[in-house]
Design a protein that fits this description.
The protein contains 5 helices and no strands. It is mainly α. The chain has one domain. The longest helix has 19 residues. The chain is elongated, with a radius of gyration of 24 Å. The chain starts with a helix and ends in a 38-residue tail after the last helix.
């Protein structure tokens, strides 16, 4: 799971979440509806990232969690009412990011299979000090 209900509640007021998910008028958010929105977002993320990374992600990169939250919220709005412009813009930005991941324009950081080696694995190049300097050769 790339994000949770708690992650969504960090971005969305609980009253709005109830309005978007409470199909049975219980007065509380429907966890099954929320999970479906999260699962749909995760499937879309996997479709883009699966060309380059093994999916599902474990552990989940922070940027993937963020993208999943934005996409899940958009999915919730889409099932009930029109998606607000600011949420639509965030969703579009998330999709652009995922497309860039698939095209190898951006990476997911440490989990990138093509990333440069960690600093500990990089070669170290050292040299001795100079044998002759300008001042050493001044009178030569």
């Amino acid at each position: 799971m790339y994000c949770t209900k708690a992650d969504i509640l960090e971005q969305l007021d609980e009253d709005i979440l109830v309005q978007l998910t409470d199909d049975n008028d219980t007065g509380s958010a429907d966890d099954a509806v929320i999970q479906r929105a999260i699962d749909d977002a995760a499937a879309e993320i996997d479709a883009y990232c699966g060309m380059r990374y093994p999916v599902p992600f474990d552990p989940v990169p922070a940027i993937i969690r963020k993208v999943c939250v934005e996409m899940s919220i958009c999915n919730l709005y889409a099932r009930r009412q029109g998606v607000p412009e600011d949420r639509k813009a965030r969703y579009d930005a998330a999709v652009r990011f995922l497309r860039d991941v698939a095209r190898q324009v951006v990476t997911l950081g440490a989990q990138d299979p093509d990333s440069p080696p960690a600093d500990a694995n990089r070669p170290r190049i050292t040299s001795n000090g100079r044998l002759f300097t300008r001042s050493d050769l001044e009178d030569f």
